[in-house]
Design brief:
34% of the residues lie in helices and 35% in strands. By secondary structure, the protein is α/β, with parallel strands linked by helices. The chain has a single domain (24-168), classed as Double Stranded RNA Binding Domain (2-Layer Sandwich). It has a five-stranded mixed β-sheet. The protein is globular.
Length: 170
């Protein structure tokens, strides 16, 4: 009998807490389905990063169930653009000879998601940031490839973060 009351009490607690799961993008007008992922301007000295970031956002919209990414801005209900504000690299680990063996790349993006019909901002983050570590090798070509891979992964991670915040209303 006592276990039964405990179960009822737990059920009431969980049902009454107000916590609910909402469908993806519930905070955004349901009529906005087709999204154009526009260019990301690059104000850094890092070549090609704008392509990594744009592709990551396009892929994230494609993987989500809420929106359909399209190639024609004129057909879009909404569009996303952005700017790569900063990319910085720093050493985070050294070997016994005090030579860097691991670096970290840090990136800041400005991301804006707007309605196509009236230009109203749906979601914006002027300082979306993230970081990713990569291995430093004696061979500078390997280190450069490791850094490029870290920037690609960071672009994907930041697109995921932005998308989650966007559709959840944060």
């Amino acid at each position: 009998m006592k276990k039964k009351w405990i179960i009822y009490l737990l059920l009431l607690t969980f049902l009454g807490c107000g916590y609910t799961f909402s469908p993806e993008g519930e905070k955004i007008d349901a009529g906005l389905r087709k999204v154009f992922v526009g260019e990301f301007s690059n104000s850094t000295g890092e070549a090609n990063v704008e392509n990594y970031v744009r592709n990551a956002f396009f892929d994230r919209f494609r993987k989500g169930r809420r929106f359909i990414p399209i190639a024609d801005k004129d057909q879009a209900d909404a569009f996303l653009t952005g700017k790569i504000m900063k990319i910085a690299t720093s050493h985070i680990a050294y070997n016994k000879d005090d030579i860097a063996k691991q670096n970290r790349v840090f990136m800041i993006l400005e991301v804006v998601f707007k309605r196509s019909d009236n230009g109203d901002v749906i979601w914006m983050n002027k300082s979306l940031s993230g970081r990713e570590a990569y291995t430093v090798k004696i061979d500078t070509a390997i280190t450069a490839a490791n850094k490029a891979n870290a920037i690609r992964k960071l672009s994907v991670d930041m697109a995921d973060k932005a998308y989650r915040n966007m559709v959840s209303g944060f």
